[in-house]
Specification:
The complex is a heterodimer of chains A (330) and B (314). With 330 residues, chain A is α/β, with parallel strands linked by helices. Chain A contains twelve helices and twelve strands. Chain A has two domains: 235 residues, 3-Layer(aba) Sandwich (Rossmann fold), CATH 3.40.50; 74 residues, no CATH class. Chain B folds into two domains: 71 residues, no CATH class; 221 residues, MetI-like (MetI-like fold, Orthogonal Bundle). Chain B contains 13 helices and no strands. In chain B, helix 10 runs antiparallel to helix 13. The chains are: A alpha/beta (330), B mainly alpha (314). At the A-B interface, helix 2 of A face helix 9 and helix 10 of B. Bound molecules: adenosine-5'-triphosphate, iron/sulfur cluster and magnesium ion.
Chain lengths: 330, 314
């Protein structure tokens, strides 16, 4: 396999009453080795469920109804959707790790940091001694720039700040040298200055370790700082994907343009926050045409009848919009 | 922590004094008195006066109370008006029986409720969850005297069961004791099991939704580590609270079951004391029950600190 992770035709559905409702629709993603890949989109577009599906962590009643997720593991290629529970557990936290949006609630409040770091080791290395685990934990805490690591090991989560907790989460996620890190809005809950520090830390660690990162965010600013390649999600679909430079300079999709406008207006002098009018239609309320049609200022008649296909507008740059291609989804 | 425990124990004193005053007043207010009970139809003014003097009931009320409490603080709870036997040793021997019943009941309740509550939460909305929930709801809504009577009737008709005539102590004959105690303990336990089960289920469901559970799974945790080490331990605080309250209220709450099964426990002693207007017995029993209740709650509060590091007392 050339890529580290290949997601093909991924569909996620849920049950609402007796009805099956689509939440994610035929998503394809290729994550190259040693690449940081961004997934961006507003709330409810399906970013987190995509990440959770990779590790088999979708909460009931959500499920993957179709597709494949192939992963190039240390010992050969694996189809993650077909792994046994045991095999999946050995991937989690060892080959693919995850960090979450809310550092304050991502550590178990009744155990201290040392125990929770040791767990990450002992699940995968049951014979590791207490001393080895402690050394490794201290080393990781130093690498994520935690001051006074010894003291931190014996602390409980409520005694630490959000920024420290997110550093610890990162330390836990990287403790077994995973090849892929899924970062689901890792800085959203943090102050701006702490945000910048955490992003820098993640960039540094990635350089040192050759870990690929999937960075999930609703903030294009975060993407600009951390990612090489970006997929823009809208209502359970990819609407645009390109390398980060092309996405910012040759923005094709009206939705991406809207997101960009929201970022730039934030820095401008007027301070007037631009937001795209309207909301993301939730799963089950998607129209048959372009899902962005109701909010698109350039919507045409055709857009309501047919769904635009994801087509290449430039080498390595795909977009799902009739402004760029006549092609409709079959 | 030590200071906290001492403070809590000191706090017991006004509670116990308040209860003792209340019991004293209530015993005065309810109609009927102990002397008429003792003398029955042979009552004459002379006999009556003699008995009242003997029991100290001829003194002014306030003096009666202070006489009693003066002895009580030295650990002497007086003698029963009826039997003349010292109250305190009697309470202790009755308490052992009630405590056995209560503990057995709790163990049965936990054995039923905790696994079912956990399974029910893990298999939410499955057939087993639905069955467990209905049964638990029945458990909480049927009063235990009703289920006790029904079960006895059922066993009597179907299996020729009869309630034991004479109580046999745990240490006298373990087998016979269990024969006597298991059925009432089961009835007590099944009633408690309903609410413990419901609490376990809802508390587990709440915890299972938390981010840290997903984070533990993302580390590669085996399911039993996720469920027991993380989810159940975090769910246990409200369960422990509930269990503490149940144990506390069981001290007096076994009275109906003791009555039905003729078990000479503390509940039965209290009830007899009240019907016979035997003031020292009632006073002693109620204070003892209140004392146990407070101690159990204190133990629960201390237990919290072992479960959850965020809880500390200073
Ligand atoms: N546990 C769940 N039960 C039912 N629906 C869910 C659940 N989790 C997510 N969804 C639905 O799946 C869709 C995608 O959710 P997802 O969490 O992936 O969004 P997101 O892009 O990560 O947004 P956010 O920025 O809010 O995290 C949403 O419509 C959401 O309502
Ligand atoms: S297809 Fe039409 S509605 Fe959809 S984004 Fe393009 S122009 Fe707008
Ligand atoms: Mg999300």
């Amino acid at each position: 396999m050339d890529n580290l992770l290949e997601i093909r035709n991924l569909k996620i559905t849920t049950l609402r009453g007796k009805n099956t409702v689509r939440l994610l629709d035929r998503v394809d993603l290729n994550i190259r080795k040693k690449c940081s890949f961004g997934i961006v989109g507003e709330s409810g577009c399906g970013k987190s469920i995509t990440a959770n599906a990779i590790l088999g962590l979708l909460p009931y009643p959500l499920q993957v109804s179709e597709g494949s997720i192939r992963y190039d593991s240390k010992d050969g290629e694996k189809e993650l959707l077909k792994l046994s529970k045991k095999e999946m557990r050995s991937v989690r936290g060892q080959e693919i790790s995850m960090i979450f949006q809310e550092p304050m609630t991502s550590l178990d409040p009744i155990f201290n940091v040392e125990m929770q770091m040791n767990e990450a080791l002992s699940f995968h290395h049951p014979r590791m001694s207490k001393g080895e685990m402690r050394d490794r934990a201290l080393e990781m805490l130093r690498r994520v720039n935690i001051p006074r690591p010894e003291q931190t090991l014996s602390s409980y989560p409520h005694q630490l700040s959000g920024g420290q907790l997110q550093r610890i989460m990162i330390a836990i996620a990287l403790i077994n040298d995973p090849r892929l890190l899924l970062a689901d809005e890792p800085t959203t809950a943090l102050d701006v200055t702490i945000q910048a520090q955490i992003l820098k830390l993640m960039n540094d660690l990635k350089e040192q370790n050759d870990t690929s990162i999937i960075m999930i965010t609703h903030d294009l600013g975060v993407i600009a700082e951390t990612c090489e390649e970006v997929a823009v999600f809208y209502a359970g679909q990819i609407v645009e994907q390109a390398n980060v430079v092309d996405l910012f300079t040759q923005t094709a999709h009206p939705y991406t343009q809207g997101l960009l406008q929201a970022v730039t207006s934030l820095g401008s002098e007027t301070r007037k926050l631009y937001t795209i009018p309207g909301i993301v239609p939730p799963g089950g309320q998607w129209n048959q045409g372009c899902r962005f049609a109701d909010r698109c200022s350039r919507c045409m008649e055709k857009c309501r009848g047919q769904m635009p296909a994801l087509t290449e507008v430039a080498p390595g740059h795909v977009c799902r919009c009739f402004l760029h291609s006549e092609e409709a989804e079959a | 922590m030590r200071d906290y425990i001492i403070r809590r124990l000191l706090g017991l004193i006004p509670i116990l004094i308040g209860i003792s005053v209340a019991i004293f007043v209530i015993m005065q207010l309810i109609p009927g008195d102990v002397v008429s009970g003792i003398l029955g139809i042979e009552q004459t003014p002379e006999l009556r006066e003699m008995w009242e003097r003997k029991l100290g009931l001829d003194k002014p009320l306030v003096e009666q109370y202070f006489n009693w409490i003066g002895k009580a603080v030295t650990g002497d709870f007086g003698e029963s008006f009826r039997t003349g036997a010292p109250v305190f040793p009697e309470i202790i021997s009755r308490f052992k029986i009630s405590a056995e019943l209560a503990i057995l009941g709790c163990i049965i309740a936990w054995i039923i409720a905790l696994p079912l509550g956990i399974i029910s939460a893990l298999k939410r909305n499955s057939v087993i969850d639905r069955i467990v929930r209905v049964v638990a709801l029945m458990g909480v809504s049927i009063p235990n005297f009703a289920s006790a009577t029904l079960i006895i009737l059922f066993l009597a008709k179907g299996f020729n069961y009869h309630t034991p005539v004479k109580y046999v102590g745990l240490l006298e004959n373990f087998g016979t004791n269990m024969e006597i105690m298991l059925l009432p303990a089961f009835i007590l336990g099944s009633v408690m099991a309903g609410s413990v089960m419901r609490m376990t289920r809802s508390s587990m469901l709440e915890v299972l939704r938390q981010d840290y559970i997903k984070a533990v799974r993302a580390k590669g945790a085996p399911e039993k580590v996720t469920i027991f080490r993380h989810a159940f331990k975090n769910s246990s605080i409200p369960i422990v609270t509930l269990i503490g309250m149940q144990i506390g209220s069981l001290m007096g709450g076994t009275v109906v079951i003791e009555q039905i099964f003729s078990i000479p426990g503390l509940g039965q002693l209290t009830l007899t004391g009240i019907t016979q207007r035997d003031f020292p017995v009632v006073q002693g029993c109620v204070l003892f029950i209140a004392f146990v209740y407070v101690i159990v709650n204190l133990l629960v509060d201390i237990l919290y600190t072992y479960i959850d590091p965020r809880i500390t007392y200073t």
